[in-house]
Amino acid sequence: MFYRPQDGHGLPHNPFNAIVTPRPIGWISTRGSDGSENLAPYSFFNAVAYTPPQVMFSSTSAKEDRGDTKDSVANIRDTGVFCVNIVEYAMKDVMNESSGAWDKEVDEFTKAGVARADCETIPCSRVADGPASLECKLTQIVKIEGAHNFLVLGEVTGVHMRDDCLVDGEFDVLRFNPLTRMGYRDYSVIREKFALKRPGE
């Protein structure tokens, strides 16, 4: 099968998300200048550089009470900071609860029953019990093609790792099993890993 996205795919559901998979989930926590807090998962998320460490996520829809975007991007525009929380399999249900299109007044930490802790380098909350959190200062918000598509880039200014995830000096993902996003309503979980040496190593 071949299709041009501009012409449509002719399938019951868009296959694009199922093709680009699995995707890590960035559980983005933000705080508005009024002190309100938001927590929302994004699967268009990844790390993009080592030095300095940088991450990105994309927001692709809007809410009536936020104009051209959603709560996360609106808060980041407002304050210039955000925190990326890594989602473990054990948190799948509370993560899903936080994904609803709730009014901007709704605090998803409270609604989903997620414990919060203060970040160290930015004025924002993080998921207290998550396996890892990356505190970030905004570097760019890039408007990309599409009515509500925004690419958010940030520099990591602080890193939290849960102690039980450190094994012999390495951050071991099998200690918490990362949740990953696939297509449609599908998710997956990392339960095994293997190593490969690069040529010449």
Automatic annotation (TrEMBL):
SUPFAM superfamilies: FMN-binding split barrel (SSF50475). GO terms for molecular function: FMN binding; oxidoreductase activity, acting on the CH-NH group of donors, NAD or NADP as acceptor. Residues 18-173 form the Flavin reductase like domain. It comes from the Bacteria. It holds the Pfam family Flavin_Reduct. PANTHER family: BLR2425 PROTEIN, FLAVIN REDUCTASE LIKE DOMAIN-CONTAINING PROTEIN. This is Flavin reductase family protein.
